[in-house]
Amino acid sequence: MFAVAIDGPAGAGKSSLAKAAAQELGFVYVDTGALYRTVALYLLEQGEDPGDPQAAQAALPHIQVGLEHSPEGQKMYLCGREVTGLIRTPEVSMAASKVSAIPAVRAFLLELQRDLARKNNVLMDGRDIGTVVLPGAQLKIFLTASAEERAGRRVAQLEESGHPADYDSILRDIQQRDYQDSHRETAPLKPAEDSVLLDTTGEDFAQSLGRLVSLVRERL
Ligand code: DC
């Protein structure tokens, strides 16, 4: 099996690029952020504080995270119920960032991620894929763009899907999540030593996709 680990901050375009590259290469695209989001949704629905390690640990035995790969992308299930759309709210984003700092939650999701890479050629995106989940990945990419560029792209994306968006609050959210994700003790966001840096600031989607696909093809 061949694994491509793609890590980087929120809004760098990891998921849309990895999804498109996977399609071009015939790989399975795995969005690991969706796993943390699903755990976060469970805690929010139970009225628990997603940043409380005790509450999370007590909840884990009751949480069943399922994922399915379909032509439209990765579908997520929480205890058998489809939650693919529900996990995309700003509230769940912030809660996911908090639950992802809890070591027990990371341990809970680790084997699920490794198992997917054992069974499929994957492009897996997240924060610690190259450093922790798949340290033996054949290619590791650290995908990034400036916070301002990422906020601008998110605003455009939201507006395209009919949701009015406020640039300043989105930029603040991105900066806060960057800080939380890179300063936590367990598996902080940082480039793996042997990763290739792909900075997409100022590039359009097609340029970044072209660079990503070429990097994979060079290693295949
Ligand atoms: O990529 P995303 O925005 O859907 O991720 C949601 C949160 O989960 C984000 O704050 C960081 C965290 N995350 C993580 O800690 N490790 C991963 N492999 C993927 C996501």
UniProtKB/TrEMBL annotation:
<keyword id="KW-0547">Nucleotide-binding</keyword>
<dbReference type="GO" id="GO:0036431">
    <property type="term" value="F:dCMP kinase activity"/>
</dbReference>
<comment type="similarity">
    <text>Belongs to the cytidylate kinase family. Type 1 subfamily.</text>
</comment>
<dbReference type="InterPro" id="IPR011994">
    <property type="entry name" value="Cytidylate_kinase_dom"/>
</dbReference>
<dbReference type="GO" id="GO:0006220">
    <property type="term" value="P:pyrimidine nucleotide metabolic process"/>
</dbReference>
<protein>
    <recommendedName>
        <fullName>Cytidylate kinase</fullName>
        <ecNumber>2.7.4.25</ecNumber>
    </recommendedName>
</protein>
<keyword id="KW-0067">ATP-binding</keyword>
<keyword id="KW-0963">Cytoplasm</keyword>
<feature type="domain" description="Cytidylate kinase">
    <location>
        <begin position="4"/>
        <end position="216"/>
    </location>
</feature>
<dbReference type="InterPro" id="IPR027417">
    <property type="entry name" value="P-loop_NTPase"/>
</dbReference>
<dbReference type="GO" id="GO:0005829">
    <property type="term" value="C:cytosol"/>
</dbReference>
<dbReference type="Pfam" id="PF02224">
    <property type="entry name" value="Cytidylate_kin"/>
</dbReference>
<dbReference type="GO" id="GO:0015949">
    <property type="term" value="P:nucleobase-containing small molecule interconversion"/>
</dbReference>
<dbReference type="GO" id="GO:0005524">
    <property type="term" value="F:ATP binding"/>
</dbReference>
<feature type="binding site">
    <location>
        <begin position="8"/>
        <end position="16"/>
    </location>
    <ligand>
        <name>ATP</name>
    </ligand>
</feature>
<keyword id="KW-0808">Transferase</keyword>
<dbReference type="InterPro" id="IPR003136">
    <property type="entry name" value="Cytidylate_kin"/>
</dbReference>
<keyword id="KW-0418">Kinase</keyword>
